[in-house]
């Protein structure tokens, strides 16, 4: 597996509650979001085959990073 990086997002409380509920079905929040992103990005690539696929670009240290 590729090196994983951490991201921080803000969610409305109702979405967080729904994500927490997925734990009862055996999902982790990270695993669910990762799978959903992979699925949605793959759909985008299939819908626009003439468009270049998204390319990951390494980022430097940001001014507000810890």
Describe what this molecule looks like in 3D:
There is one protein chain. 42% of the residues lie in helices and 0% in strands. With 66 residues, the chain is mainly α. It has a domain at 20-45. It has two helices and no strands. The chain starts with 12 loop residues before the first helix and ends in a 19-residue tail after the last helix.
Write the layout of secondary structure elements.
Layout: H1 13-21, H2 29-47
Summarize, please.
Helix content is 42%, strand content 0%.
Portion of residues within helices: 40-55%
| SSE order, one letter for each helix or strand | HH
Beta-strand fraction estimate: under 5%
> What is the CA–CA distance across the termini?
25 Å
Stretches with pLDDT under 50, minimum 5 residues:
none
Key descriptive features of the protein:
66 residues; mainly alpha; 42% helix; extended
